Input
Amino acid sequence: MPTKSKKSSARKKAPPKGKKKPATPATSSAPDNKLSGVDSATQPDQGTLAIIPSHQWTHKGDEVFILKCVDPEGKAYGGFSWPLTVGATVEAPDWDPTPKCGGGLHGWAWGIGIGGGKDPDWHYGIWIAFSTKPEDVVHIVNDGSGDKDKARCCVIRYVSKCGDWQGATNFILAGQIAWVQQASRGAASATGSSGAASATGYRGAASATGSRGAASATGSSGAASATGSRGAASATGSRGAASATGYRGAASATGDRGAAVAGLYGRARAGKFGCVGIAFWNATDGRQEMRCREVGAGDGSDGKLKSCVWYRLDEAGEFMEDANQQPAMEAES
Output
């Protein structure tokens, strides 16, 4: 259980716009299970270690966290029934370590590539976050339908309400952002002010950590991270992930089923059937929170966000279309 901290007698104020970058990073509201937050001491040093694939990434603990979606009855594809109880252990009865579909507990490690292999039920599905040891996880490459992962056994750590994919992604968000950052260290990286990094290959990673940096990953399942103030991150391939966690950053994941995450006063956009997350300052409770919304089929007629449209948060933390629809490189210059 998380440790409750005493509230300060003085209410915290929101950081002034255009001033000093807030020190608090954009993280999930997950319980303090040793996985919340990004600790640079646990990440590999640049240039000394190879990129750790998402299905082997353990963030601040010793387990891989994997997301999956089941129907309201807890049943997965093929009829396998999942217990909808946090703390329950599950073991694949037909475990097969061969990197192919079947013979395991399937999902997407750290929420990377959601929809690979099988589209989830965004409306009524129940989302499960389970954890397992990296040696018990196998990555599956599916030509055409996207990648996914499978595990031999696991412990259930989170169970959502029907359709609450935002809660599940928030639960593992800190680890997901940390994975993008470490992956970028072993690929294209620009650390100076106004630097630019680009990774165009399949599952490439690009990182720009300096102020006003730009990171671009154009291959399928690529990851782009811009952590400096007013940075811009773009992932244009299918199932890409873009993260711009610095103050007033811009994150764009325009390929189908991508995910875009932006920091305070930032803006973000995603392609069809993707998701967008933007940090919000809750002045009442004096804390930073994440606001997440699903992107629908495209034009917004389904009640979801429009695809490839820039969004910001209003003063109440609600999504609104940004008046400036220019590309990130132009808008943030």
